[in-house]
Structure formats: C-alpha cells, structure tokens
C-alpha cells in the first residue's frame, strides 16, 4: 500500500551535512553459499540508506530449490537474469499457482504468501529478488524446515496424522536450499490432487513485451500494477542506455528507487537538498538506492550498452523530469531564476526528454 506520509519524519541518516553512500557491491559480497548455489543480500545491514527496499541476488544449481518459505514484512518482486526456474505460491484463500520462468520474466508474491523457487532444466539459473522493505532479511524469513524442525514431534504427529517417530529424520534446522533431482518438465498436480488456481497471476513476461518507451539513447520496459494487477506495491523497470546516454535529472514523488546494474558502467548522481550532492560509479553487479523525492540521474559512462534493473516501492510509478518541469514553466521565471538572457532560456528543451542521447 502506498503511504504518502512514510517519509514525513526526518531520517537521521539523511539529516547530516553530507549524504551517506548509496552504493553497495552486491555481487562482490560473500552471501550464503551452497556449492554453486548462493544468495547475496543488500538490506539496511549492508546499505543503511536503503530503508524502503532490499534485494537479493540468487543463483540455483540444477536440482536445487530455495525452500518453501514466507516473508513476514515484505512482498517479493523478482526478475530472472538467466536460466529457467519454477515457483510455487499459496495465498490465504488456499489458492495456489505454479509457474515456469525464463530470462526476462518477473514474479510478484504478496507479503506473507508462502512460496518456493527451484532451478529448471540442466543449467543453473540466476535471478534478482527485490523486497518492498529494507529491513527485510532473506536470512530471517520463515522457512518450513525451520518451523517443523522446532515444533514438538507430538504436536506434528497430531497435526499431520502420523506417528511421532515418523518425524525422527526430518531436518532439525532450516535447510534454506534443498537438493533433489531436476523437476519434471510438466508441472504436476499439487499434493491435494487438483489445483485450486489463484485468481490473479503472479507471472509477467516483462522483456517479452513491447518496450514501454523508446528513445534515441535507450529503451525502457516498465511493469506496474496497471500491467500486472497483483503487483500492488512494486513497479519494475529494465532500462537500457547506449554509451553516453543519460537518464536525465528527475525525482519520484511517491517511491524510493532500488537499482541493480546488469551490464555496463554507470554514473549515478544524487541531490539531497541543502547543497548536498553525491556521485557514485556503479559497475555490473552493484546496487544503488535513491530515497523518495531525492533528485537523481543515471549516465552510461562505459563503452558498451548498459542495462539497469530498477524497482520502486509503489505499484503506481510517478516521476518528474527536469526537462518536463522547465518546459512546463513560463520563460520569465526561468530567466529570473538562472539570471540568463532570453536567448539562453529559449534553447531549453520544450518537452520531456527522459533519456538524452550522447
Ligand atoms: Mn522469498
Ligand atoms: Mn529514478
């Protein structure tokens, strides 16, 4: 749910003379490793400024599953970078859904809904998970093995209708990653026999769509609640920028922004009022974060195309771009603000540019 007042109380972290870092080298971090599978997280622990959104980079080897679990304090939005995976999700209405994902696909699980993710096929898969709460911790979520492992066997026996000794060899601690044979290509029926399908799909094929907007310097795919109704609290963007292209100065009135560099090298600027300004260089695998309302820009400073995965903690994306603001303001005001001759102001763009080519 959007909360227009969520940032009304000054954040002490953002009240100093200088701005804190808004960059974290996610893929260079250690994370949780199990053979070739891993989960690396960026939360307020690793990146203190990122209070509104958190993220995880996860890789699963064939036969590996991120076990059945739920998140008590966050919805989960995800983008598949490579490989194929299958999810299961159940809601409080008892309806469930199983979906298979390819690179470029997105999922959304509402807060608290139980789910699992497994690698499909004989190649590893990798995806970026993004949560609408920076205090979420991927390692503090609620896992089914952890829960059952700490529940008295007597209670489990009663609950599931088995003898107590049937639980002797159940895992005693959280498994986190489980290991098995690669799953069947055709999705089987659930344990109960028949699927009670979810009314709203949890899957959206983002990169299989036409771009949301195209520009001389780049391309943008965008998915919010309008395109993907279940995604009530998140909007996702894939932004491709050609070398030298600039996602122009802008801000978001209603949401924080979480960035993950898929490819390339970018320069991100952030303006925090009171003369406070900070510039960070982000490379592939790095995370950036822009608090709600802070001015910012993204420029491809590398020699090759850059791809940035961006998430907002709102289902209803809003932005105000500098060129749009200036184009929507009378010239005499602009002349007086910048103390410039009419000819200079005349040359300002007369429309929103969004992306400026090199
Ligand atoms: Mn999860
Ligand atoms: Mn932005």
Overview of this structure, please?
- The protein folds into 2 domains: 12-204, Jelly Rolls, CATH 2.60.120.10; 207-356, Jelly Rolls (Sandwich).
- Helices cover 9% and strands 37% of the residues.
- The chain has helices spanning 144-149, 153-160, 322-327, 331-338, 342-346; strands at 23-24, 32-34, 37-42, 54-60, 64-70, 76-82, 84-90, 96-101, 106-109, 114-120, 125-131, 142-143, 177-179, 203-204, 213-215, 218-223, 235-241, 246-251, 257-263, 265-271, 277-283, 287-290, 295-300, 306-312, 320-321, 355-356.
- Strands 1-22-19-24-17-16-15 form a 7-stranded antiparallel sheet, with no helix packed on it. It has a 7-stranded antiparallel sheet with strand order 2-3-4-11-6-9-14, with no helix packed on it.
- Strand 15 (213-215) and strand 16 form a beta hairpin.
- The chain starts with 22 loop residues before the first strand and ends with a strand.
- The structure holds manganese (II) ion (MN) (2 copies).
- The site of one manganese (II) ion (MN) has 4 residues, from loops.
- One manganese (II) ion binds next to loops.
Q: In CATH, what is the class of the largest domain?
A: Mainly Beta
Q: How many beta-strand elements?
A: 26
* Cα distance spanning the termini: 38 Å
CATH architecture of the largest domain: Sandwich
Tally of domains: 2
Our Rg estimate from Cα atoms comes to 23 Å
Q: So what's the overall shape?
A: elongated
Strand order of the largest sheet: 1-22-19-24-17-16-15
SS-based structural class? mainly beta
Q: Helix tally? A: 5
CATH H-tier superfamily of the largest domain: Jelly Rolls
Low-confidence stretches: none
Q: Average pLDDT across residues?
A: 96
The largest sheet, given as strand count, sense and whether it forms a barrel, is: 7 strands, antiparallel
Proportion in β-strands: 35-45%
Bound molecules: manganese (II) ion
As for the CATH topology of the largest domain, it is Jelly Rolls
What fraction, in percent, of the residue positions are helical? Answer: under 10%
């Amino acid at each position: 749910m959007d909360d227009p007042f969520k940032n009304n109380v000054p954040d002490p972290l953002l009240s100093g003379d200088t701005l804190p870092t808004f960059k974290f080298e996610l893929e260079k971090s250690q994370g949780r490793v199990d053979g070739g599978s891993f989960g690396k997280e960026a939360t307020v622990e690793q990146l203190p400024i990122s209070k509104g959104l958190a993220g995880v980079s996860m890789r699963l080897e064939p036969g590996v599953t991120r076990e059945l679990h739920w998140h008590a304090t966050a919805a989960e939005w995800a983008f598949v970078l490579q490989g194929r995976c299958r999810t299961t999700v159940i809601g409080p209405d008892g309806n469930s859904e199983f979906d298979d994902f390819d690179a470029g696909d997105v999922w959304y699980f509402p807060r608290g809904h139980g789910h699992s993710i497994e690698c499909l096929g004989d190649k590893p898969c990798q995806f970026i998970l993004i949560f609408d709460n920076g205090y979420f911790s991927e390692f503090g979520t609620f896992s089914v093995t952890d829960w059952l492992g700490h529940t008295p066997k007597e209670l489990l026996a009663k609950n599931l209708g088995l003898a107590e000794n049937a639980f002797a060899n159940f895992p005693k601690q959280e498994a986190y990653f489980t290991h098995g044979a690669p799953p069947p290509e055709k999705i089987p029926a659930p344990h109960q026999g028949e699927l009670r399908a979810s009314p709203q799909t949890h899957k959206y094929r983002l990169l299989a769509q036409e771009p949301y907007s195209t520009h001389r310097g780049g391309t943008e795919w965008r998915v919010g609640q309008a395109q993907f109704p279940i995604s009530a609290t998140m909007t996702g963007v894939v932004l491709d920028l050609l070398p030298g292209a600039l996602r122009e100065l802008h801000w978001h009135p209603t949401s924080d922004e979480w960035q993950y560099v898929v490819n390339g090298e970018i320069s991100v600027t952030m303006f925090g009022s009171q003369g406070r300004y900070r510039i960070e260089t982000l490379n592939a695998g790095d995370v950036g974060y822009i608090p709600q309302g802070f001015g910012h820009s993204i420029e491809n400073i590398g020699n090759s195309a850059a791809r940035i995965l961006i998430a907002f903690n709102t289902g209803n994306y809003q932005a105000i771009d500098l060129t749009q603001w200036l184009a929507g303001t009378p010239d005499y005001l602009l002349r007086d603000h910048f103390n410039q001759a009419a000819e200079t102001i005349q040359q300002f763009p007369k429309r929103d540019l969004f992306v400026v080519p090199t």
